[in-house]
Write a structure and sequence with these properties.
Elements (H helix, E strand, L loop, with lengths): L1 E4 L3 E9 L3 E8 L7 E2 L5 E2 L9 E9 L6 E8 L1
Antiparallel strand pairs: 1-2, 2-6, 3-4, 3-7, 5-6
């Protein structure tokens, strides 16, 4: 997982397996519980340099959302 600031917000990118696993973007106002599923829209990222069997995903968290922590929960199927 990597992130960078843009004029529109925080851009978060990660690689995920194409098959055999599920992923959920979660957010929290603190690093403690509760973590909840994020309502932000996950999009396909730039495919350049991605290893076979994986895809790049990304989401833009607008600055208007306020301070939040994000994580990706993954589980093998």
């Amino acid at each position: 997982m990597a992130s960078e600031g843009t004029p529109e917000g925080l851009l978060i990118r990660w690689l995920q397996r194409i098959s055999g696993a599920t992923y959920q973007l979660e957010e929290s106002a603190t690093l403690a519980n509760p973590w909840v599923a994020s309502s932000l829209t996950v999009n396909e990222g730039d495919p350049g340099g991605v290893v076979t069997g994986y895809t790049r995903k990304q989401v833009l968290a607008p600055f208007e959302e306020g301070w939040k922590f994000f994580r990706i929960q993954g589980a093998e199927n």
